[in-house]
Specification:
This protein is mainly α. It has helices at 49-64, 67-94, 98-118.
Length: 119
């Protein structure tokens, strides 16, 4: 039964209070960076690629293959696209600065492209 289950029991966790050398980690050892305890994503520094990758591996990667999750993601992307369209329309009706409208159009295009890339 243990062979069928994949748990973290097989992992040897490092002690954060000791150096790698003190724990017997050699230069030839390969380390897998993971967080031992789940943490909410509001505590993640969005500028830190390591934290973002760990977060993706945890709450996102396991669920993204779920059809229900995919449907929610598509619905959320549609909602964002609709909101962007509303912002562009409102700006076109109320703003007469062609430079600002062009900048907004560029930003809206970038958001649309990001949503398409995500989907």
């Amino acid at each position: 039964m243990r062979k069928k289950l994949h748990t973290d029991d097989e992992l040897e966790w490092l002690d954060h209070s000791l150096t790698l050398r003190e724990q017997g980690v050699l230069d030839v050892n390969t380390l897998l960076l993971r967080r031992k305890f789940f943490f909410p994503d509001q505590n993640v520094d969005q500028r830190d690629p390591v934290q973002l990758n760990l977060l993706y591996i945890q709450v996102v990667a396991p669920t993204i293959s779920s059809p229900a999750c995919q449907e929610q993601l598509i619905d959320a992307a549609k909602g964002v696209a609709h909101s962007v369209e509303g912002i562009v329309e409102a700006a076109q009706q109320s703003c007469r600065d062609d430079k600002l409208l062009a900048d907004l159009g560029t930003a809206a295009t970038a958001v649309t492209q990001a949503l398409n890339d995500l989907l």
